[in-house]
Amino acid sequence: MTEDRQQPGPIPGEEHRIRDPEGVPARQEKDGERDTAAAPPEVKDSTAEFEAALAEREARQYVLRLYVTGTTPRSRQAIENLRRLCEEHLQGRYQLEVVDIYQQPDLAGQAHILAAPTLIKQLPLPLRRFVGDLSDKERILAGLEIKPAPPEEKDSR
Fold it and tell me: Are 97 and 64 in contact, with CB atoms under 8 Å apart?
């Protein structure tokens, strides 16, 4: 003897969600009637938002701290390289603090400096560290998330 079991129907007065085979809600049902007038998802032009975000990224302020060991050749080279890079790519958009770890060892300890020279980009986030004389310009620009300026065209006349 076989029993025919029927699936229970919707409870009158209650809303039920119909799910597709993957369990994602597909449409809404009320008292056995399907909602066929579902509005399509809103499409908006995000070009203006993208351009605003790009302009904000171009205008963001950089906070940099360079830890050096006195006036050693590597420390002087790191300072020169960083100042040149900042003037070329971050004109007016950076704060640079140079910390001599011989004169301010407490700051070096707080920042967990193990080698010098070390550059720490504090803002914009994420925080980044660079160790060495900062002579690899492309690596430093990439790490600082700075798009290199296009090369100047030379007059071919």
Answer: yes
3-state SS, residue 2: coil
Quote the pTM value.
Answer: 0.60
Domains of the chain, by residue range, sit at 61-143
Bridge partners of residue 15, in order along the sequence: 30
* Helix, coil or strand: residue 100: strand
The pLDDT tens digits for 11-67 are 555 555 555 555 555 555 555 555 555 666 676 777 877 777 666 666 689 999 999
For the chain, the average pLDDT equals 79
Write down how long the chain is.
157
Instruction: Report whether 137 contacts 78 (CB < 8 A).
Output: no
| Architecture of the 61-143 domain | 3-Layer(aba) Sandwich (3.40)
Please state whether beta strands 94-100 and 62-68 pair in parallel, antiparallel, or not at all (unpaired).
parallel
74 by Cβ neighbours in 10 Å (0-12 / 13-18 / 19+) ranks as middle
Instruction: For residue 100, list its beta bridge partners.
Output: 68
- CA–CA dist 128, 116 (Å, integer): 15
Sign of the CA dihedral 146, 125, 127, 90?
positive
